[in-house]
Design a protein that fits this description.
The chain has 187 residues and is an alpha+beta fold. The protein folds into two domains: 63 residues, no CATH class; 112 residues. Helix content is 45%, strand content 17%. Strands 1-2-3-4-6-5 form a six-stranded antiparallel sheet. Helix 2 packs across helix 4.
Length: 187
C-alpha cells in the first residue's frame, strides 16, 4: 500500500469512527487526554471498554491524540529524535533499511515517535533504537520457534511476535536478515 492509499484509508477510518460514534476527532483527543491513563495500551483498553470501540479504531485514535500517527511530523525529524543520544545505531539502521528494501518494491517505511514501522500488506517489522546500548528489531513471524537470538517479544511490544536485541554492530548477521525476510514473506 503506497502512502497516498494509506492516507486515504486513515481518512476513511476516521470518518467512519466519527459517523458511528457521533464524536469528532478533536473530542476524542480531549477524552483521551482526560481519561487518567498515560500508557498507549491502557488508553486503547479504556476506549474499548468505556466507548465500545474496536481495537483498530481505538489504537488509531490514541496515535492521533498523541500525534504519533504516520502522517504526523516529517520523517527526518522523527528519525532525528529517535536517534538523539543513540547516534551510534544510525549506521546499523541505514544498513537494515538497505537490506529490507532489497526484499521488494512493496515496502512502506514509516517512522513513528519511538520506532520505525516496516510494512508490506501489514506491519512485519519494527526498528527501534531503544537505548544507547541496544537496538531492537521486532518481527511478526508465525510458527517460528524462539531461540537465544530470536526471542519472544512478550510485553516489549504487543505488535510483534519476536524480538532481536542488537548490542553491537556484529549482531546484525545474515541470519538476522533472513528472519526479517521471513517476516516480510509472511506479511
Amino acid at each position: 500500500m503506497n502512502l497516498d492509499a494509506l492516507k486515504k484509508a486513515e481518512e476513511t477510518q476516521l470518518k467512519n469512527i466519527e459517523s458511528t460514534s457521533g464524536i469528532k476527532l478533536d473530542q476524542w483527543t480531549t477524552i483521551i487526554k482526560n481519561c487518567g491513563f498515560s500508557k498507549h495500551g491502557e488508553i486503547v483498553n479504556f476506549l474499548k471498554k468505556e466507548h465500545g470501540l474496536g481495537h483498530g479504531n481505538a489504537n488509531m485514535l490514541v496515535h492521533y491524540a498523541n500525534k504519533s500517527h504516520s502522517g504526523f511530523g516529517k520523517e527526518d525529524e522523527l528519525l532525528t529524535q529517535q536517534f538523539e543520544g543513540k547516534e551510534e545505531w544510525k549506521g546499523l539502521y541505514d544498513q537494515l533499511i538497505t537490506e529490507i528494501k532489497k526484499f521488494g518494491d512493496d515496502i512502506e517505511i514509516s517512522p513513528k515517535k519511538a520506532y520505525v514501522s516496516v510494512r508490506r500488506q501489514k506491519q512485519f517489522a519494527i526498528l527501534q533504537p531503544s537505548t544507547k546500548n541496544r537496538f531492537d528489531i521486532g518481527l511478526n513471524i508465525k510458527d517460528f520457534p524462539p531461540n537465544v537470538v530470536l526471542e519472544p517479544a512478550g510485553s516489549w511490544n504487543t505488535m510483534c511476535t519476536h524480538r532481536i536485541k542488537i548490542t553491537k554492530q556484529e549482531d546484525l548477521t545474515d541470519q538476522v536478515i533472513q528472519w526479517v525476510r521471513e517476516a516480510y514473506n509472511q506479511a
